User: Fold this.
Amino acid sequence: MSHIIAIAGKGGTGKTTIAALLVRIIKEKKLGSILAIDADPNSNLGEYLGVPAAATIGTILDGISGNPGKIPAGMTKERFIEYEVQTAVAESEGFDLLTMGRPEGPGCYCYVNNVLRNAAAKLIGEYDYVIIDNEAGLEHFSRRTTRSADSLVIVSDASSAGLRAVRRINDLVGELKIKINRAFLMINRFSEDLPAGKLSGIKPQYLGFIPQDPEIESLSQDGGSVFDLKNNAVSVISLRKLGERIWN
Assistant:
């Protein structure tokens, strides 16, 4: 059975970096097969993993909605979408990547989204670990990938605005009726545990903090991947310690 880890947080908190680091650490620990899903329309996860995205789910939606005739004769729409999802998976050493993207056309995607979620569910079931980098609104998570997760990690900075966003994201989980077994709060780019007063009213369990890492900043500027980080990079060491609670 797949262990699904969803990462969420408002823009700029470093959630995509955290998602990529989790892929790296789970791969290094040889815990099982890994599917990384980039469900953020900005689609940066592939860059952080050093894997160019193949076709995106957004382009699949546009192609089917704009040109239903492209479905081969004798093949159902459901089977065609399942095939297209499989071909959109970019393979790498130790993990695969599926990039959701965003549909650009004006078509109606309601039926296709439903079929797509079923196809994604089949794909997810083929992996031991699935790490989903979400947009803050969780729309892809609820509509196109899966409506449940074993672990939800909400990444935030230590600001009051960031913690308000944590509350909103946590409320969205309930509004969208997403089934979450465990929810965690991770503070990124911070050098100490948050005081208890700042955590007042925060429902996700406080997991800990990831210190500011100059190596991550260099990677962002140079366009490298998290696999270029040294084993003793502060972000890698910190997430190794916190990660056990996320994937176990």
Summary: The chain has one domain: 3-247.
